[in-house]
Amino acid sequence: MIKDERWEKVYSFDDSPYLMEILTELRNKETDSIAFRKGLVKLGRFMGYEIIKTMDIEKIKIETPLEETEGIIVKDRRNIVIVTVLRAAVPLMEGLVKVFEHARIGIVSASRGKAPKFEIEMNYIKIPQITPEDTVIIADPMIATGSTLVKVIEEVKKYGTPKRLIVLGVLAAPEGIERIKEEFPEAEIFVTKIDRELNSKGYILPGLGDAGDRAFGAP
Ligand code: URA
User: Fold this and answer.
1) Among 54, 114, 150, 156, which is least packed by CB within 10 angstroms?
2) In the chain, what are the domain boundaries?
3) Where does GTP bind (predicted)?
């Protein structure tokens, strides 16, 4: 996990050959929907493990069948709310719940209009109540302009103030990170990689194309 020097609390995984190999497969235009979805599930799972490394641990005493010993518990792992931004985050969430099996799940449907305005329409919002012990993980594979995520975070905050607010993506454009950080400096952003830029249509470059279309085979 690498902390990006340009912003506070923004991390990428350029140092993980395994995650970079999965990303390479996702980027490749020859990769079909089945492999693409599987790649997103794997990323969700392994990025979940990385997030756990940033959580507090508590030492506990337990007894094996033979004697007493010390163990640990990652308490925050049990207080997770995953907010899934439809569509492309669905496979990412599948991976995340393998690691955060106690998670309560929120679903948000947000679609982005066309350039130059990229206006965001939110037509389905179901988010559980959030407590000060919770870590909220908002899963959205592509952090492009950041506008969708700003809207989603505004919605999430109506349900309570969490201990940590994490945005988890596959790729981000610097423009999108900048936008989120401007509005919500407290947000932590975890992405496999931060790409170069956005094109005029709001796609991340070099990117991987439209993540929803590629995962579900339906434009
Ligand atoms: N959404 C995508 O699916 N891909 C991009 O490059 C940008 C937004």
Assistant:
1) 114
2) 2-59+71-216
3) 38-42
